[in-house]
Fold each of these.
Amino acid sequence: MNLDRFFRPKSIAIIGASRDTNKVGHVILKNLIDSGFKGKLYPINPKADEILGIKCYKSVLDIRSEIEMAVVAVPAQFAVDVVKQCGAKEIEAIAMVTAGFAEVGNKKAEDEIKRILKKEQIRLIGPNMLGLLDAHSNLDTIFLPRLRLTRPHAGGISFVCQSGAVASAMLDLAATQGYGFSKFISYGNALDLNESDFIEYLGKDKTTKEQLIASERSFLRI
């Protein structure tokens, strides 16, 4: 399975980008800028003209250029409509940090999103995920500020984890101990893509030399 659009996209729409520095959408956009991401960034917020000096759009449907990946950071009640818009825009990859789904009993919304994903042939990581990191392509969609959570330098370890708490602790440990990371994947509720898909992808990834898969009770080293 080729998941390059999640880790080496040429363009990203940040749906739910915000001017409020305390909001997740603002943190994600700033992290992408501060990490040195070289692709095109499209903040999406119907109430803003620009955020962090970048032109803002009311919807992904207002963007004329191709969007390779969308990062969704809107409240759960808006998520279904956002996924529909991504389908209309022919966006093939969505990373959804939004929480408030099956983990709190809202399975109905997850089922509707799953139906749209299948219809529109979209792949999704999440929802309820911490984010994605690729130290080699300067991709950073983790919703914790870089000042609060230091990122590890580029290296050969790729780490996959469902739990955001475990994942953030591992990132902090790797950075302080000097371990180099290739990719970091926090996949949350695994509505679509899961650890099996990531293992398959990372097994063919040239920058990954070692995989660490974390469950709630143990670590698996591959």
Amino acid sequence: MTILSQLNSPVMYLICGGIIAFVALVCVFFMVRAWRAGVAIGMDKTKMKRAVVSSATFTVLPSVGILLGVIALAGSLGTPWPWLRLSVIGALHYETQVAEAAAEAAGLSGLNATEMTARAFTSIALLMGLCIMWGMILSIFFNKRYLKKLQTPKAGGPSSGGGFGDVAMTAMFIGLVSAYIGSYLGKFVSGEGLFTFAGPWLPLAVAAVAAAVMAVFVWLAEKKNAAWVESFSIAGSMIVAMAAAVVLNLL
């Protein structure tokens, strides 16, 4: 039995599926309590139903990005584990980045199913789980103080607001983009593997396509007052960029 067969075994599905089912039940429990609380304080049931339908509708397309992440990771980590990680508390950009880094630290050339071993998978899964749990733990002790800081306007900032939270999120995404693109940009500038199949030019071209699509979504939201497109911007950018990668490979 190969390592990928073991990672897709019924036991793995049972363990991961059981955890996901428990979390789903917790969500249903609090959803019911929220509905009852709304009724108790006299909220209009028609508006409440409209909010439920609207929320459910706007989660469909953005969740496509999560599904794409599960599919991308399933080829090397099996389906149950990525399904669990991206269903409970994981994030697509976090899971792929940490899994890739852990795989390289374990001696693999990357998330490659042909090189995957039980020891490497254990290291990858352990790192993916341990690194993301600190947000929940630290929130218990520092969340109240942190929320006050987020609500404090930045001194000397624009009149529209923008406190510590805006600066922190902007810095985080700049660092994230730099980490992803920096290595490929370095290889592109140095000429390493430049003319090889799926060389560093491909990720850079795909990133440019994704950025252009995201710019279109931002333009529609800000200039055309179509704020609803913001819910689909990430998933839409990912789908178009992945399609562009396929087309560029064929060309």
